[in-house]
Amino acid sequence: ASSEAEAIVSLIERVAGMLTHRHREIISFALAKMRHYSPTIPVFAVALDRLERESTQPLVVEFLGTEAAIAGEWSKARELLTRATQIDPDDPVAWNNLAFVIWKSSDDIQLALQAANRSLALAPFVADSRETRGLILHQLGQWQKAIDDLEAAYPSLPESKDLLRALADCHERLGQTEKMEIYRRAAGQ
């Protein structure tokens, strides 16, 4: 099983090394399938564990960190996403996901904001990054700046309850009750 796991790791690393960020779905798909079948195919579990510990491919490490965040494994997610940003400091997705993880799992809101700003410096028009920074700014009480980011993200993320609730709260705090009501209704409140 060890040699099979090593072969899988080697294949994933080689393929990831040939892909650009535009093709991240290929690695995401392969790793998601491995994760799905890992309870019944132990060699996949061994390979995933090794990739988490040793991968030097930013797409692999980013995916595994994001997957850990989705599972609520904040410490593991932060470690992997930090590693992804160290491997590829120009990956806006890794920076955004790291910002989100720090925001959700720690008191270091300024560090979360720095990571979100880095993501947006690399890709200024990405809705997910605007949402993340807007949520962080909302928590910091920077109502108008939060509104600017969240409203920019809203057309691409109209179903995001976090975004809608934060927009409603920001507008309420600025005395903009009409907009507050619009976003509250959209959030189902």
Describe this structure as you would to a colleague:
78% of the residues lie in helices and 0% in strands. The protein is built from 11 helices and no strands. The longest helix is centred in the first third of the chain and has 17 residues, at 2-18. The mean pLDDT is 93. The protein is elongated. Helix 2 (24-37) packs across helix 4 and helix 4 (58-70) runs antiparallel to helix 5 (74-87). It has 189 residues and is mostly helical. The N and C termini lie far apart (52 Å).
Roughly how many Å is the radius of gyration? Answer: 19 Å
Strand content: under 5%
Q: Main sheet, how many strands, which sense, barrel? A: none
Dominant shape: elongated
| Helix/strand order, N-terminal first | HHHHHHHHHHH
Number of strands: 0
What's the mean pLDDT score?
93
Contiguous uncertain segments of 5+ residues: none
Please work out how many helical segments DSSP would assign. 11
What class would the helix/strand composition place it in?
Answer: mainly alpha
User: What gap, in angstroms, lies between the N and C termini?
Assistant: 52 Å
**Share in helix:** over 70%
